[in-house]
Structure prediction request, 328 residues.
Amino acid sequence: MEEQNQKKLWAIRLTVVIGIALMLIKFAAYYITNSVAILTDAMESIINVEAGFFAWFSIHLSSKPKDKEHPYGHGKIEFISAGFEGGLIIMAAIYILYKAIRTFIEPNPIESIDYGIFLSGFAGLVNFFLGSFLIKTGKKQHSPTLVADGKHLLTDTYSSLGLVVGLILVYFTHLIWLDALISVALGISIIITGYQLMRTSVAGLMDEADTEMLENVARVLQENRKPNWIDMHNLRIVKFGAQVHIDSHLTLPWYYTLEESHEEVTAVESLISDKFHKEVELFIHADPCIETSCCICELHICKVRKSAFIKRVNWDSEQLLLNQKHGI
Prediction:
């Protein structure tokens, strides 16, 4: 876990340092060209840097161990970080749209546009590689903050690409109003990105079901289930940043001793942890089987069976979510 946190912190530090450098480059491009579209790109860079510092703090805080005030750890701060970043992006976009509309009314003369094209293209290329790196690292280290930051930078890359294309058009056509039009298009694109980040944040804070992970857990359980794991139901998954908490009920033969039941519960926990290679905390409640469980029980050697085995219940995500024992 410590190695995982160090990798996340190293990635976000790199992001902040490069973000500051790119911000300075973009503002230099604006100073040279007086282009409102380039100013739009530069304003978003300020948000990148601010968000990077907040992400740095959130990853540092989320890496702290659990304590009595935070029994589930501090991982939720990563979702707050993603929402904060989304909010900043939307605020920047509103200013960008305001500036663009004013430019339509009072056009600004643009100078040395070729330098602006070069500098904006360079910044966009750096953001592309950095954003791709953050998304890859974030998914590998299970960090919503890094993934959110990476998606933001990729969006910044596409914005820069559109900016460069637009500036080239301005360069050859000398239509100054295109500069403001590009800024409006970028502002709308940035608002959409901010909304998506805030949506991800709210989903994490509200413990919205992760359909993909539910299906993956169901698949692992289905493929590795044992005959004495008679039934499983009431499966719940909650994310705390990089940490995952799983609740479930496991039906075992009623005559198992407490020690035997504990061994089976431990086997389920080990299976999930080994397959997903991440920080997983499982709370599994062992249920005793009842008479109606016999028809779905594959444990052939059972001296107390009340009825014959009829059908195996398929453990898919829909079945495992049900808060009741399965039967025929």
Notes: Strands lie at 231-240, 243-252, 280-288. The two ends are 43 Å apart (CA to CA). The mean pLDDT is 80. The longest strand covers residues 231-240.
